[in-house]
Design a protein that fits this description.
The protein is built from 17 helices and 22 strands. The protein is an alpha/beta fold and about 525 residues long. The strands form four sheets. It has a seven-stranded parallel beta sheet with strand order 8-7-6-9-10-11-12, with helices on both faces. Strand 16 and strand 17 form a beta hairpin. The longest helix has 25 residues. Pathway: Amino-acid biosynthesis; L-serine biosynthesis; L-serine from 3-phospho-D-glycerate: step 1/3.
């Protein structure tokens, strides 16, 4: 067994592989064509962030069984192409959570007490301490946006400073907030009451520009803001204005929407925020601790060794190891189950405290475990998001306080096989059902309405009053934005009452178009869903 390592990882990770009797070739600095030329010899590939593992490279890796990214994200690996080849992709999702949390705390102290500015003043021979009158954390209110693992670690540390800690995360159970002694609040309340706002959410369509001019206007004057999560969650131009206007007293950013080149000799970077004395910027240091680098190297080395020895990877971001024939058989069901989770959470934007999954017909019992995990993965990707995979989704659901019930029955009506998912929220119970025929997944029951549609990349989910002219109104508005409706499913249970439409469209509708649809007479609800 041979492993190719194309970027430097900690020696501790290399040693784990060698101690398992695995041959390791460390070849740092190879070009893309050079890797493609030799990758066919190897059973595993370990990269960090510089190596772009695209479809071409994956096809060249005819013997690859596992690709490992020594870090949290997986942006530089074509996971879909790897999955099609039956290659497991793993990462190290928890390797740097402590490092990120501690950096957040360090930056918080820095902007409350102006530590970096005071240090630079002393370096320049100016020891006037009256220039740096700080503010105490004690008895102030800290608002945490995103209450996942890092957000919870930060909360623990801020509470130890005597702060009142509130948090906004609509996808986290009340039990988790109670466990950490943190107040669950809505977004506007957090903006209005916080003396400190710290961000711990991934960048998605939902969180991009989450904090911009409108949100700054709701904040306390003198608020301080920290972002060690993802660039782009804060609108940097609006932050600059809010600081100049005195709304924001200070800010600390470890991430920027457009990040600089981290090689000094190639640096041609400018950001207006760097001109402000009350802004602290660090060069994406979230994972830059000795421990974090060792953690990620050790984690992926163990994962690679497990796969090559015939075991299961705990941090697989795509699929467990299936024989090629089995993979081809189960794939449409996996895609259907994951789509069902994604459709529910996007349509409802509500926390489900219980998810019941019923498998009907001849679905292989060995496959149902993975189908359940796929459905939970789809649901959780819109809450805990970028660390969710097929292996850890069940554990993460438990951590979120979700009761998961799985059952099987022989009867499946007129369909050979069927998956039914029942989502229980604090207000209602909603059900989705799907099946597979012609080797593709189909949704056949959409929250109590009989339909038959294939989940697609872009879908409009619409509730409307059942009356003439609705289809034309929707088609006209979508057409105004240059987007074509590929298919449309319309269903009603009773004439003249509520109906649903599911439209497959050729692109993502802008927010302006969604608002226009919502404000159209007869339309009750509109969701732009993406798979």
């Amino acid at each position: 067994m041979k492993v190719l390592v194309t970027e430097r990882i900690a020696k501790e990770g290399i040693d784990i592989l060698k101690n398992e009797g695995i041959e390791v070739d460390e070849k740092v600095g190879l070009s893309h064509p050079e890797i493609c030329d030799i990758i066919g010899e190897y059973d595993a590939l370990i990269v960090r962030s510089a190596t772009k593992v695209n479809e071409e490279m994956i096809k060249c890796g005819k013997n690859l069984k596992v690709i490992a990214r020594a870090g949290v994200g997986i942006d530089n690996v074509d996971v879909e192409a790897a999955t099609k080849q039956g290659i497991i992709v793993v990462n190290a999702p928890d390797g740097n959570i402590m490092a990120a949390a501690e950096l957040t705390i360090g930056l918080i102290f820095s902007i409350f007490r102006y530590i970096p500015q005071a240090y630079m003043s002393c370096k320049q021979g100016d020891f006037r301490r009256n220039k740096f009158k700080g503010v105490e954390l004690y008895e102030k209110t800290a608002g945490i946006i995103g209450f996942g693992k890092i957000g919870a670690l930060v909360a623990e540390r801020l509470k130890a400073c005597g702060m009142r800690v509130i948090a906004y995360d609509p996808y986290v159970s009340d039990e988790k907030f109670k466990k950490y002694g943190v107040e669950k609040v809505d977004f506007d309340t957090l903006l209005k009451e916080s003396d400190l706002i710290t961000i711990h959410t991934p960048k998605t369509k939902e969180t991009y520009n989450l904090i911009s001019e409108k949100e700054f206007k709701k904040m306390k004057k003198g608020v301080r803001i920290v972002n060690c999560a993802r660039g782009g969650v804060i609108n940097e131009n609006d932050l600059y204005i809010a600081i100049k206007e005195g709304i924001v007293a200070a800010a600390a950013l470890d991430v920027l929407e457009k990040e600089p080149n981290f090689e000094l000799e190639k640096q041609e970077y400018h950001n207006p925020l760097l001109e402000l004395d009350n802004v602290v910027i660090t060069p994406h240091l979230g994972a830059s601790t000795q421990e974090a680098q060792v953690n990620v190297a050790v984690s992926v080395a163990k994962e690679v060794a497990a796969v090559l020895k015939g075991g299961i990877a705990k941090n697989a971001v795509n699929l467990p190891a299936f024989e090629k024939e089995k993979l081809e058989e189960i794939m449409p069901y996996l895609e259907l189950a994951e789509a069902m989770g994604k459709i529910f959470i996007q349509a409802e934007r509500a926390f489900a405290n219980k998810i019941e999954i019923v498998y009907s017909g001849q679905i292989d019992e060995k496959a149902t475990t993975w189908l359940t995990r796929a459905l939970l993965k789809g649901y959780l990707e819109f809450s805990v998001q970028d660390n969710v995979n097929y292996v850890n989704s069940q554990l993460l659901a438990k951590e979120q306080g979700i009761e998961v019930i799985e059952s099987k029955k022989e009867e499946s009506g007129k369909f050979k096989n069927m998956i039914t998912a029942r989502f229980t929220t604090s207000e209602k119970v909603l059900e989705l059902s799907g099946t597979v025929y012609n080797n593709e997944g189909r949704i056949i029951d959409f929250f109590g309405y009989k339909v038959d549609f294939k989940p697609e990349k872009y879908m409009l989910l619409i509730q409307n009053i059942d009356k003439p002219g609705m289809i034309g109104k929707i088609g006209t508005i979508v057409g105004e934005y240059g987007i074509n409706i590929a298919t449309m499913q319309v269903s009603r249970n009773k004439k003249g009452e509520k109906a649903v439409m599911v439209c497959e469209i050729d692109g993502e509708l802008p927010d302006e178009a969604i608002e226009k649809l919502k404000n159209t007479d007869g339309i009750l609800r509109v969701t732009m869903a993406k798979l």
